[in-house]
């Protein structure tokens, strides 16, 4: 069994755009649930809007990449308003139910053949990152993201982080967005606005009685968290293609796992949680098939790879029971821990 | 600031009413006026107040049996519930249809029967939340500390001054969860003061507070009046009512059934029957036959 | 304060108990109740009064010390075993089954010994005449004070060796509070050993035989009800100077 190979592949996930995308979405969920107490069970929908908004912005509207990004963000803001206006005045459980359904509606709208000209339906969309070698349906120069890459051709870095200039560009852009977002969130939650939000999380009526417009604050939190989620989707789009099969409910629960693992009401929890989550997934995804091939498990290689999802589920359950505050969280601060 | 454990006899406001005393009597200087406020839950009429006026800069007690509609009436007046009909105004401005947070910003603050000290925030954070003047509470401004830092320091100074008065200053960085029930009541009152209210409505401020702490709470309520605020509070403790209330309003089955100065109201036979009981000032030891003399004697 | 030579009905020694790990609410409570006595427990919030009752009734983890019932060690026994042994507990809230009638609530009190129902029902309705008239009424439609009567009646159905009352006057208007205290006194005079925890310290001490003042989980003062009522230290720290 090639342990070294497994470890090096696993390590490469630490700087993977997918990990960063999860961290961004996790940050958004931290705002929603960790700080504002909003039960958003449809983060996958926000991510889908960010990703598809970007791709559609380039392919259908012919926008350059930096403007197309705002299409995704704009879509997520509209989505937040549609979700929030009816449900934020009701009990939190209603938002949870509505968000699960809404995310699925988004996915199905992106999947249906009716809009295939815009969404690519089951095939999804590709070829919107500008000139590139592997896209199957390229419009040369579309979007222009790859063209905007200032890094000259070549391979950089060292094992296991050895990649070409395109991957590095995406990594750097991703890290800039992640750092910027983390800084903004850190500022927000440590400000008076953050204090009001934390108060609302615990007791809306108390905060209302002090003269704060609780509905407006909840809506702001919903929008900000949603925008962060769509930025995560944007990163996913930049690194590969977009396909509706990615934005399923399991994605939402993976983000939840990463968030709870790191600490729901912390700023760095989502990042750490995502890194641990992804490296663990990658590791198990390589270890189990290797064990199976070496005859140590009674499964085929492909079956063994699926075991990691079961493990993720079990971890989520154990987390919620035994350490709901995650790695960085403070039990004393959490409203959902008794 | 008085710190004696023996409370001085408060000076009562008199001459608050206009004309003959009866339920709904007009006041010389009302801060809050309610007309025909009615709230029904299915078949049950919880509140049916024909007319009531709350006098300015006085301490008014709202008493009555459980289920009389006192808390519901509070909720209606402050925007936490909507009546089926009725109008009411604060300083002449109508409050009908005004949402709860706007009512609070107009200077009408209420506390809750079950204390709402935010247990998961620190005492200081609770206090800072009380201020309505912090620009950093707006989303855009919150991202730039230079906009709100200075104001935060001013608010903190204001908070420390109030906390010191309530003897909670040593706890300012502790989570409110670590405070005892009585201390949380104090915190809720202190926090309400941060909003610089005109009318403070306290819903059973003494509930669950042990009697010795009650006296200091009473001092704080009297201070509110000294500083020009108006107080309306719901209570069951008649000794407390008699001690500090300038005016008493009695509610039963949703209606105002009596009004007047505390001593007068507490002699009203209907009020005694329905609410006070005839043993108000008697030692229950004599009533139950456990003691034979009023001053000494013990059983077994 | 001389003790009788009888074994106390309830006695606790150096009781330690709490809810969260590592945090003790009771820090060594010593208390006893002789047969037929009415014991009052008062004290500030967070002193552990309700925790104390719940510890006796097996609802809170006891971490040290002992509890005896008529001399037998009952420390750590669960509530259902204690009911069988004759410990009756009346909680402050959520103390009746709202969907059951008054009669059914009382029957629940005799769950472990249903044969004695008629005789015990007569006893309970002799104290609570009101209940006897409204046996078929749903408990959920009763007011707070009435529910408390039902809860007390239910605890009395099994002829408890000791009755534990958690703040019987909580949330009641003055006239109902007085009625509640008078009722407790009547129950005790009918021969039921009673321990009651109260927030209305003055009324509690007016009717009880002996009292304990609990502070920070320890019994700080004890004496007859009258002695405590007139003790200047107790007045200064707990009773306050307002009122009769």
UniProtKB/TrEMBL annotation, chain C:
Question: What Gene3D superfamilies is this protein classified in?
Answer: P-loop containing nucleotide triphosphate hydrolases (3.40.50.300)
- Name the CDD domains for this protein: ABC_TM1139_LivF_branched
Q: Which PROSITE patterns match?
A: ABC_TRANSPORTER_1 (PS00211), ABC_TRANSPORTER_2 (PS50893)
Lineage here is: unclassified sequences, metagenomes, ecological metagenomes
Query: What name does this protein carry?
Result: Unannotated protein
Q: Which SUPFAM superfamilies does the record cross-reference, listed alphabetically?
A: P-loop containing nucleoside triphosphate hydrolases
Write the record's keywords in alphabetical order, separated by commas. Answer: Amino-acid transport, ATP-binding, Nucleotide-binding, Transport
The record's GO molecular-function terms, alphabetically, read: ATP binding; ATP hydrolysis activity; branched-chain amino acid transmembrane transporter activity
Occurrences of domain ABC transporter (ranges): 10-241
Which protein family is it in? Answer: Belongs to the ABC transporter superfamily.
Please name the GO terms of the biological process aspect recorded for this protein, alphabetically.
Answer: L-amino acid transport
């Amino acid at each position: 069994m090639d342990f070294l190979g497994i470890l090096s592949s696993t390590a490469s996930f630490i700087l993977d755009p997918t990990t960063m995308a999860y961290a961004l979405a996790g940050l958004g969920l931290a705002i929603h649930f960790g700080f504002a107490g909003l039960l958003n069970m449809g983060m996958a929908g926000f991510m889908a809007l960010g990703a598809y908004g970007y791709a559609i912005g380039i392919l259908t509207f012919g926008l350059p990449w930096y403007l197309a990004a705002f299409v995704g963000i704009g879509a997520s803001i509209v989505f937040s308003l549609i979700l929030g206006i009816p449900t934020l005045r009701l009990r939190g459980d209603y938002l949870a139910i509505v968000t699960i359904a809404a995310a699925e509606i988004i996915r199905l709208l992106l999947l249906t053949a009716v809009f295939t000209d815009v969404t690519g339906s089951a095939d999804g969309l590709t070829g919107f990152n500008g000139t590139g070698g592997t896209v199957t349906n390229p419009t040369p120069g579309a979007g222009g993201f790859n063209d905007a890459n200032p890094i000259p051709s070549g391979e950089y870095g060292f094992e296991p982080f050895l990649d070409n200039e395109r991957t590095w560009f995406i990594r750097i852009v991703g890290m800039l967005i992640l750092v910027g977002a983390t800084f903004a969130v850190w500022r927000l939650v440590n400000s008076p606005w953050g204090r009001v939000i934390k108060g609302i999380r615990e007791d809306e009526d108390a905060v209302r009685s002090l003269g704060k417009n609780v509905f407006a604050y909840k809506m702001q939190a919903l929008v900000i968290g949603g925008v962060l989620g769509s930025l995560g989707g944007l990163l996913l789009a930049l690194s590969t293609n977009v396909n509706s099969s990615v934005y399923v409910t399991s994605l939402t629960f993976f983000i939840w796992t990463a968030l709870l693992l790191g600490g729901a009401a912390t700023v760095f929890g989502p990042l750490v949680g995502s890194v641990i989550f992804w490296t663990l997934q990658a590791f198990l995804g390589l270890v189990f098939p290797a064990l199976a091939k070496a005859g140590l498990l009674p499964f085929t290689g492909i079956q063994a790879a699926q075991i990691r999802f079961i493990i993720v589920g079990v971890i989520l359950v154990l987390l919620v029971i035994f350490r709901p505050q995650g790695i960085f969280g403070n039990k004393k601060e959490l409203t959902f821990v008794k | 600031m008085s710190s004696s454990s023996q409370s001085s006899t408060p000076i009562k406001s008199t001459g608050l009413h206009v004309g003959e005393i009866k339920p709904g009597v007009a006041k010389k200087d009302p801060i809050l006026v309610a007309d025909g406020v009615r709230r029904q839950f299915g078949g049950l009429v919880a509140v049916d107040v024909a007319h009531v006026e709350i006098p300015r800069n006085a301490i008014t007690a709202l008493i009555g049996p459980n289920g009389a509609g006192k808390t519901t009436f509070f909720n209606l007046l402050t925007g936490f519930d909507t009546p089926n009909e009725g109008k009411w105004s604060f300083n002449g401005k109508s409050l009908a249809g005004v949402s709860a947070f706007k009512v609070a910003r107009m200077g009408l603050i209420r506390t809750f029967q079950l204390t709402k000290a935010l247990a998961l925030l620190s005492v200081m954070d609770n206090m800072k939340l009380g201020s309505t003047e912090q620009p950093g509470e707006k989303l855009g401004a919150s991202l730039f500390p230079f906009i709100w830092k200075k104001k935060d320091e001013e608010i903190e100074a204001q908070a420390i001054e109030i906390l010191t008065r309530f003897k909670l200053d040593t706890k300012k960085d502790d989570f409110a969860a670590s405070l005892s029930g009585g201390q949380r009541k104090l915190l809720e009152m202190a926090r309400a003061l941060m909003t610089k209210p005109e009318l403070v409505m306290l819903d059973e401020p003494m509930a669950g507070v042990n009697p010795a702490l009650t006296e200091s709470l009473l001092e704080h309520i009297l201070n509110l009046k000294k500083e020009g605020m108006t107080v309306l509070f719901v209570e069951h403790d008649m000794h407390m009512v008699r001690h500090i209330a300038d005016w008493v309003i009695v509610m039963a089955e949703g209606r105002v059934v009596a009004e007047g100065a505390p001593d007068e109201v507490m002699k009203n036979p209907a009020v005694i029957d329905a609410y006070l009981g005839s043993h108000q000032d008697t030692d229950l030891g004599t009533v139950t036959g456990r003691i034979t003399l009023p001053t000494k004697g013990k059983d077994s | 304060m001389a003790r009788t030579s009888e074994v106390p009905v309830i006695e606790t020694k150096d009781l330690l108990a709490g809810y969260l790990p590592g945090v003790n609410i009771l820090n060594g409570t010593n208390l006893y109740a002789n047969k037929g006595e009415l014991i009052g427990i008062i004290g500030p919030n967070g002193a552990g009064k309700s925790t104390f009752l719940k510890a006796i009734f097996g609802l809170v983890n006891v971490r040290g010390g002992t509890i005896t019932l008529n001399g037998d060690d009952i420390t750590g026994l669960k509530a259902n075993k204690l009911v069988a042994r004759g410990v009756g507990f009346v909680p402050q809230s959520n103390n009746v089954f709202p969907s059951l009638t008054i009669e059914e609530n009382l029957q629940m009190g005799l769950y472990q010994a249903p044969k004695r129902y008629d005789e015990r029902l007569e006893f309970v309705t002799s104290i609570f005449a009101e209940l006897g008239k409204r046996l078929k009424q749903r408990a959920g439609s009763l007011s707070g004070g009435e529910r408390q009567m039902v809860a007390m009646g239910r605890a009395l159905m099994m002829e408890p060796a000791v009755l534990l009352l958690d703040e019987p006057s909580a949330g009641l208007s003055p006239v109902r509070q007085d009625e509640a205290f008078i009722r407790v006194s009547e129950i005790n005079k009918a021969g039921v050993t009673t321990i009651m925890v109260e927030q209305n310290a003055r009324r509690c001490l007016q009717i009880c035989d002996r009292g304990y003042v609990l502070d920070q989980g320890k019994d700080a003062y004890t004496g007859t009800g009258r002695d405590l009522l007139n003790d200047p230290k107790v007045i200064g720290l707990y009773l306050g100077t307002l009122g009769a």
